[in-house]
Design goal:
Layout: H1 3-14, H2 27-30, E1 33-38, E2 44-48, H3 58-71, E3 77-81, H4 94-103, E4 105-106, E5 140-144, E6 152-157, E7 163-167
Parallel strand pairs: 2-3, 4-7
Antiparallel strand pairs: 1-2, 5-6, 6-7
Amino acid sequence: MTAAHDAASIWAILGSVMDPEVPVLSVVELGIVRDVTVDERGAVTVSVTPTYSGCPAMQIIERDIVTALASGGWRDARVRTVYSPAWTTDWIGDDARRKLKEFGIAPPPLPGSAVSDAELVPLRRRSPLVTCPYCGSDHTTVRSEFGTTACKAVMFCDRCHQPFELFKAF
C-alpha cells in the first residue's frame, strides 16, 4: 500500500467524523482538518485548526478522530492542533454551505460580501445580508449575537417569521 493510498483512506475515514456542534458537516467539510501524515512506522498524525482557540468541542473532535481511525485499522493515531494560519469560514466549501442551508443554518457570508472590495479601508462596518435558509428572504435581523454555540448567531426572518441560526464568519 502506498503512502498516497494510506492518506486517501485516512481522509475518507475523517470525512465520516461529524462536527458535534454542527452535525450536518464532517470535520473535513468544516475545513478544520489541515493535514494528514503517516510516518514510516504507520503512525498517523492529523493536524487540525480549531474554529477558534477556545472551541469547547475540540476535545470531542480529537477523541472522535482517534476513535474513527482506530476503527478503520489505524490504531497509532494522534491529533496535532495547529493555530496558524487561523481557521476561517472561507475554508467551508460550497457543498458544505449548501448542507448548512438545508439543515436550517444560514451559511457564513462569502468573502468580500460584508464590505465593498473597492473600499480598501472601510470607514464603517456594513453587516452582510443574511438569507433565510427556509424562504430565501434577505429581510432578516439579528436577535442575538450568540446562538447555541459561540460560532453561531440567532437570526429571525421578517418574511416567514422563522428563527434560525447563522454560522458566523471568522
